[in-house]
Amino acid sequence: MFPTEQLKGLETPFYYYDIDVLRATLKEVCEQSKKYNFHVHYAVKANANKRLLSEILEAGLGVDCVSGNEVQCALDNDFESESIVFAGVGKADWEIRLALKAGIRCFNVESLPEAEVINEIAGEMGKVATIAIRINPNVDAHTHKYITTGLEENKFGIGLTELESVVDAIVKLPNLALKGIHFHIGSQITDMGAFQALCTRINELQRWFEERKIRLEIVNVGGGLGVDYEHPDKHAIPTFEEYFRVFHKFLELRDGQEVHFELGRAIVAQCGSLVTKVLYVKEGRKKKFAIVDAGMNDLIRPALYHAYHKIENITSAEATEQYDVVGPVCESSDCFGQAVVLPKTQRGDLIAIRTAGAYGEIMASHYNLRKFAPSVYSKN
Ligand SMILES: *Cc1c(COP(=O)(O)O)cnc(C)c1O
């Protein structure tokens, strides 16, 4: 629950991170993954807050990066280069150079032209790059279309129909060592059947590679495990036990193979809330608006994906009314929730927008020349 008294005097809006929730989540993800000797890389793009990264480093997770600056951020925050993997459809030359110089564990390569460029740059630098190829498995994640990545129509990975020609070309490139296969089918996935379908596809592909006498050391199944946006307190910790069990049960592994996971949202979503103050309550003819001092520039998920976030008034406990909770930004999409049932709300009340630890702070912008919301932690 919220330490409302502690938060009252602070300038709003701000991100509030509950370090106990983060630690409990990390403990569970480590316990459940260690049962099967699975390797977990944290997807930095979900949140690169330094304080959170230090907890994640301490817990022993590796990192999954999707840009050169994320690779640099991981290095600056003391992650071992051996624990870094680097994905992304559009790696620029300087990003490839940076990752090669650092000696990261693996590039997740998404196309043949990219493989050729990595091969060329590695050659110039006198290095051999370890790569996994990202395969688009054409598995439906049953999630929002903007965060579905594993269907044929998506831009990610190498399609099944191109696989043969791409693999034939890649194995001829002298400065690449093809060591693994990589997948990532989408985000906020709550249907374990989607992960089971991914395992089945991976098993078929493993046999395909064996027929070609290619030995794979790394099977990287990506991330995407969802969290419960409706019940952030009751289900503060995602279903890691069930999630890892699905892969243990359905993936057919060969001796010595490492299984890599890349979890972002599931690690950090529930520990963060965006805390904002009510500026005005405006009564329209049809509805009441609670106008708050946080906007879509602080948390874009509702505007971008129509994402649901639980909204709580942490000051008032009076009888409930319905409000549209909206920000000050000059866009009608700057709305955190419609017809939200809240205790009777007035100017000055603190509102918590829950489950905002993933894809919140990191996606903030200066739109309307607004400043970035600072971070506050439950522990120092
Ligand atoms: C975004 C991303 C992830 C993390 O996704 P979550 O849904 O936050 O777990 C993992 N791998 C890759 C390649 C990604 O792009």
Please identify the structural class as seen in this structure.
alpha/beta
Sum up the overall morphology in one term: elongated
Any low-confidence stretches, pLDDT <50, length ≥5?
Answer: none
| Oligomeric state of the chains in view | single chain
Description:
The protein is α/β, with parallel strands linked by helices. It is built from eleven helices and 17 strands. The chain has helices spanning 4-7, 19-34, 50-59, 68-76, 93-102, 112-124, 163-170, 192-211, 240-250, 265-268, 301-305, and strands spanning 14-17, 39-43, 62-65, 84-86, 106-109, 129-136, 158-159, 176-182, 218-220, 258-263, 272-283, 288-292, 311-313, 320-326, 335-343, 350-353, 375-377. The strands form two sheets. Strands 1, 11, 12, 13, 14, 15, 16 and 17 form an eight-stranded mixed beta sheet that branches. The chain is elongated. The mean pLDDT is 95. The site of pyridoxal-5'-phosphate has 17 residues, from strand 10 and helix 10.
